[in-house]
Predict the structure.
Amino acid sequence: MTRYTRLTGAAVLLMLVAGALIFFYAPEDFLQKEPQRIFYLHVSAAIAAFACFAVVLGASVAYLRTESPRADRLARAAALVGVVLTTVTLGMGMLYAKPIWGAFWTWDARLTSTLVLWIIYAGYLLLRRLAEPGRQAARFAAVVGIFGFVDVPIVYFSVTWWRTQHPGPVIVTNALPPEMLLTFLVTMACTLFLAGTLVAIRYQIETLMDEVPSPAPSHPVGAAPREPEPAR
Amino acid sequence: MIYLVVAYAFGVVILGGFLALSLGHLRELSAKASEKK
């Protein structure tokens, strides 16, 4: 059993513990009833995504300073995990919004800035995929990774800067009863562990892909393969 | 209740699927790398 299989097993086990707390320990919310339980993973996934994008920021700064391939690989790994976690945040958020607000989506500041965050880092991944691998692509991506992070504080503070339908912060304002707070903190810790495991696995994949490059295409990406010359 | 079930099913499919795919990809690349050595 490899280190990564063990890490995956631990992450799955921790997420099952979090699930047990969410469904069997946390009390039902008086106003929102059952759908309120979506909150625990929805917010935890958002915080884990922010952590991943902070790693992209740090690794991108490190790459621009040192041009270390390790920093570039870490940025690529963390960006992909961050996009997956933001997808979970947005999807679960829409399924939380429907029974509470009566609509899956509303163009308020929190939802819109989170969608913009997803688009920025999906664009980062697209840039990495389509650009010719090398120093130039890594430098461009590092700049996107640094400037893309500007949206993270905008997402976080959007509920205080603008009037939004999305509720404001409940953790820092101590608005949760102790059982709900404990469930949230455990779920957040487990989700951060899962995110760390995913980044470690993706980092190893990036390392192996750099060592074992796939065969180069015979024609540039996006261009049609050249037709054979007709016989004269 | 249906939204709660669908929301967690969505989360499990996305996160679990990504974890399983990543682990499978890592195994495949590790096998290729050890073959090369």
